[in-house]
Amino acid sequence: MTRNLATDSTIGAAPGDAGRRFATLTFERDVAAPIEVLWEAWTAPAARAVWAAPSRSVTVDFVEADTRVGGREISLCKVEGQPDIRCENGWLVLQPAVRSVTYEVISCEGVTQSAALVTADFSGTYERSRLVVTVQLSSLAEDMEAGYRAGFGAGLDNLAAAAERTMVLQRVIQAPRSVVWGAWMNPETLPQWWGPDGFSCRTQRIDLRTGGEWVFDMIAPDGTVFPNHHLYVEVRPEERIGYTLLWGEHGPKHADAWVSFEEQDGGTNVTLGMVLSTAAEFQEAKAFGAVELGLQTLGKLERFVTSR
To answer: Could you give the number of structural domains in the chain?
Structure first.
């Protein structure tokens, strides 16, 4: 279970700073997940969309997401009956599984509410990890400190819970990124290698683009049929795919997933991640061998692209 260790230290407004308030807030979380998993949950847009909303009454729509140094993320926080809150985050530092630094600007109806520098420090092991987030806040239109305390506290609780039901698989494939991407995003080739060893795919519909879908059955070596439905919410050519997994066409959601493709020494580092919908589904998937079966799938991809 996650232990909440929220600690807050505040620097009050200096004399003469009427209408502008400064504060430094610190949040800490211990998370029962590997540090690499926590990092992916913190940075991957598909995962951030899962935990970003501080409560069920808030909907967060991601307008833009470019997770790299110099990239930015723009989201709209929506509450029924209230004007949208616009949040812009810019990635300044990305040291995998070590540190991220972002700027954050909050505005509403064209008026800037606050600006902040957010530093996240990661530490831990293969089993557990620790996150320390420091927010250097400047409230502009009004005092935003209480809102930041509540929003960041709830968001980090959500993050910890999401990380604890997240799986992350990686494999370096000895082929150029363009080749690996082409094998994944080609409707003719994807069904040829997708799935663990001995499994085959039977496609009903396939449309590999943002807003598209893949409706198919995975067939086990013993003939068992597993209906699948992938809904593609983001496709960034040769960089990232974000999609939702359903149990069969229009069935219940199983997970929010993503794949990233990074060049590495002439090959391609493929990261496949997914946030299972519930902790129970995560435990069931682990018991079923989802990690091993997922690694088999990436192995089939490598054999496919290197044999052509």
So the answer is: 2
